[in-house]
Amino acid sequence: MNPYLLSLRPKTLVAAAVPVLSAAVLVFAEQDSVPWFLVVSVFLCALCIQVATNLFNDLIDFKKGADTHQRIGPVRVTQSGLMSERQVLFVALFFSLLAVGFGVPLVLKGGWVFLLLGIAALFLAYGYTGGPFPLAYLGIGDVFVILFFGLVAVMGSYYLFTGNVSQASLVMGVQLGCLSTVLLAINNLRDSVTDKVVGKKTLAVRFGDRFVQVEIFFLIFLAYALTFYWWVTYQKSVFAVVFLSLPLAVFILRGVFFAKEKQALNKMLGFSGLFLLIFASLNWIAFLL
To answer: The whole model's pTM is what?
Structure first.
């Protein structure tokens, strides 16, 4: 794969794309229309912020010694030498500027609140692993993933598209935030040994692997439990379709709890991204029906 494409970590972008598209589908189901220009702007802005976050993470983890030749996860372009530190930093800043450009219509529509949210998102793109209080190294990254990839992404998008927020957008935000956090939790579970060496105090390092395995179970359980909100407020028979994704959830949980080697979690990480997309897509089908 081309190093520049590899540096974007394409498989992770589903966590940025799904909340925006889900909010758009929810609005379309409720109003039979959606402001497509704003949808595209939010979508591209979210993708650029996610890419910038990935690149800063790639660079900073290497400089802090978290990514070494002992790494068992996917290839990282800085650690592997496929791209220089300067190249990675340049691309990260380029996508940060792109996010600013795509974010202009959001600020014009949503006002100063979205300006502050944009600044916070760009700060966290770097501050997730960098700066004086790196979230990932303090073990609070999980909370911010739920907040920004769930509540902020869905409710913020919904507000831009409609001018208000709703209980439905809150529920959807929690669901998708939980499933996005599953990706992070599996990643941290896989890297707990090497993270401990460099003082990266993820939840797996602080409380152990079993804690994170239970966390992953709870996150998936909560996402399904909240489906009963839609069951009550929308057509029951339609939202039964969401449970078609349950076998994949069980498969992921089996892999997380019974993996004999840490490297096997790479496969579960890939499936968790697919699971997020399938879970959301089944919701979309239910709404549109």
So the answer is: 0.93
Provide the residue-wise pLDDT of the chain in tens; the chain has 289 residues: 677 888 888 888 999 999 999 999 999 998 889 999 999 999 999 999 999 999 999 898 888 876 666 667 677 888 888 889 999 999 999 999 999 999 999 999 999 999 999 999 999 889 888 877 888 888 888 999 999 999 999 999 999 999 998 999 999 999 999 999 999 999 999 988 888 888 889 999 999 999 999 999 999 999 999 999 988 887 676 778 899 999 999 999 999 999 888 888 989 999 999 999 999 999 999 888 7
Instruction: Please choose, from the candidates 58, 202, 63, 56, the residue with its C-alpha nearest in 3D space to the C-alpha of residue 121.
Output: 56
Q: What does the block give as tokens for 212?
A: 């994170």
For residue 171, the domain's CATH number is 1.10.600
Structural domains counted in the chain: 1
Q: Supply the range of the domain harboring residue 146.
A: 3-288
Specify the residue for token string 């795509």: 102
